Amino acid sequence: MAGAYCDAEMPASETSLTLDPRTPPIELLDRIGPDAAPMALSAPAALEYCRGLARTHYENFSVLTSLVPMELRDDFAAVYAFCRWADDLGDETGSTPEARERSERLLAWWRQELDACFAAEGVVRHPVFVALRATRQRHPFLGPKPFRDLIDAFVQDQRVTRYQSWEQVLDYCTRSANPVGRIVLTLGGHAPPEHDPKSAELYAKSDATCTALQLINFWQDVRRDLVERDRVYLPEQGPYGPTGVTAEVLRDWMAREDDPRARVPYIRVVRGLVEATEELFATGRDLPTRINPKIAPVVWLFGAGGEAILSAVRRNGCTTLWKRPKLSAPEKALLFARAWVRSKRG
Prior knowledge:
The protein is built from 14 helices and two strands. The chain is an all-alpha fold. It has two domains: 1-159, Farnesyl Diphosphate Synthase (Orthogonal Bundle); 160-346, Farnesyl Diphosphate Synthase, CATH 1.10.600.10.
């Protein structure tokens, strides 16, 4: 496959490439996608694109804030840009069978670019991987596995749109969410357990927090996932027993917002899922007190943000099928202020 040449080691066309990070990645495929003509983008320009992407695409908290140590901001930007692109390649092509096939082809290309990034003699062909290669070179314990796991999760989204059991949902989270926490710990100087067995407990706590963050996002976005992507992450067999949830049942309930026969059973299902999610948050809650103080405030912020959304789901009566809860600007500001105070206290 052809790619956009973004490294000094690659031949360059006569026209230099500039990218607007506000443009959705899916709309840039004609310029830097698998079939795009080779174009030149310097390493500094590639990094600036990743920084812009991290600053302009988020819902609750920006990835790049004063909480992130200066020496890690470029690394956080590169990792976020990788995730943003992979997410869009998996989610933004549509929900038809043809769209899912296209997403799989695009994700296969993304995996090839990742493999080239981590290969000793690999040639990077995309601005995200120019930046990510520099991150990999700065952090020798950062391997390709968590990135491959994330791509696997997005591929799974094209093939699996319904979940029968709680265990299946948790298994999905091991690829869709947990790798992000593992990458952050590695960037923060905590070598993965395969290199340092003493870090196993830290990584387990990170996994619990990241799984909880993914789950509360599912319970928050039930309607959006169903309507926009034809996906149902609520399992038919929940952590405390059968839920009776199917796509057909959800669509029926969604159309009967004021009917207690729809609202009550849905609320009961989500309430049980929220309780199980809270247990996972509790498992990882002390992680920020046990890791490198430099990354502890930002790790605390994202965990606390997830728990705040969980509280919002409860506050709204677990009625997420009809109303999507989210954090208000004052709530976000308060959480950030608390994280900032923690950073100053060390």
